[in-house]
Amino acid sequence: MLQKLQNLVRSGEKIAMLTCYDATFAKLMERAGVDILLVGDSLGMVLQGSENTLNVSMHHMTYHTKSVAAGAPNTVIMADMPLGSYEHDNEAAYKNAQWLIKSGAHIVKFEGGGNRVDTARYLVEHGIPVCAHLGFTPQSVNQLGGYKIQGKTDESAAQIMQDAIAMSNAGVSFVLLEMVPATLAKKITETIKTPTIGIGAGVDCCGQVLVLQDLLGIYSGPADKDLSEFKSPRFVRNFLKDTNSIQDAVAAYVKAVKDKTFPASEHSY
Ligand code: KIV
User: Fold this and answer.
1) Largest distance between two CA atoms of the chain
2) Which residues of the chain form beta strands (DSSP E)?
3) Where residue 150 falls among pLDDT bands split at 50, 70, 90?
4) Which H or E run contains 251?
5) Of 193, 246, 248, 260, which residue is the least packed, with the fewest Cβ within 10 Å?
6) Does 229 participate in catalysis according to the annotation?
7) In the chain, what are the helix, strand and coil shares in percent, each to the nearest 5?
8) 9, 28, 190 from 268: Cα distances, Å
């Protein structure tokens, strides 16, 4: 299935990816033509009502990966490696990645460049397809000082480019770029041979991803916060507003990604 996706990219078609955490939505998304279902650790916020992704565990991830796999047997499933499951040593990372694959994922995603390149290479050499998540990396939200655009200075843009090249050379299947300037994402996409997937990274990436609940306009921040305290990020578009059903909203997202009308410049940095 991953090979089919690589061919899609080679033919110039954009990849439409969405987060998914359960079997019902997985089935709906498969019918709507979503190319990749991401079992994201964003489930910490969206399903568990937390402020961030930091308390998500391997048990949470495998539980939801199994649910998604049950609902969408014919779609590529990517699963996030949660904080603490891949940073310490490569062998532990491999065991946890294997657990996600056994739960139904086709590919695992983890955050960071730099010293994570070696982990990516190790997993790829041991037969585990990897997506490298660069730019804004939510598991480092405290080090990054909040939800901030990355790659704005020449130095930070050069670092993200260097990490993307290193990850590509390590053999990862995708590079996901979150909240980086559209011009930087375009440059990376043109430089590396690995397909890029963007969220808040402009229209020139090879594919796009959004959190399902954002697309439906129903995510309003941590459970203990007042609704008025929450402001949707710039890269979010509510696709339910102009359609009559969740199924149609998801299909509209897929179409907008494929015909390059999403993201527009107002969704980019
Ligand atoms: O967990 C998640 O939903 C993600 C997206 C922000 C890409 O990693």
Assistant:
1) 48
2) 15-19, 36-39, 76-80, 107-111, 130-135, 174-178, 196-199, 207-210
3) very high
4) helix 246-258
5) 193
6) no
7) 45, 15, 45
8) 21, 28, 18
Domains of the chain in sequence order: 2-267 (3.20.20.60)
How many other C-beta atoms lie within 10 A of the C-beta of residue 193?
7
DSSP string, 96-161: HHHHHHHTT-SEEEEE-STTHHHHHHHHHHTT--EEEEEES-GGGHHHHTSS-----SHHHHHHHH
CA of 41 to the centre of ligand 1 (A): 6
d(CA 144, CA 163): 17
Report the chain's terminal Cα–Cα distance, integer Å: 32
The answer to whether 2 and 42 have CB atoms below 8 angstroms apart is: no
Mean pLDDT of the chain: 96
How distant is the alpha carbon of residue 174 from its chain centre? 10
Residue 23's pLDDT is what?
Answer: 98
33-57: burial string, b at 16+ Cβ within 10 Å, e else = ebbbbbbbbbbbbbeeebebbbebe
* Distance (Å) from CA 40 to ligand 1 centroid: 5
Pick the closest to residue 33 from 50, 13, 52 (CA basis).
13
Q: Is the pLDDT of residue 89 over 80?
A: yes
Does ligand 1 come within 6 angstroms of the Cβ of 9? no
Whole-prediction pTM: 0.97
Q: Six-digit token pair at 121? A: 């290479």
Question: In terms of Cα–Cα distance, which of 259, 115, 264 is closest to 203?
Answer: 264
Residue of the nearest CA to atom 1 in ligand 1?
40
CA triple 178-38-107, angle to 5 deg: 100
pLDDT at residue 220 above 80?
no
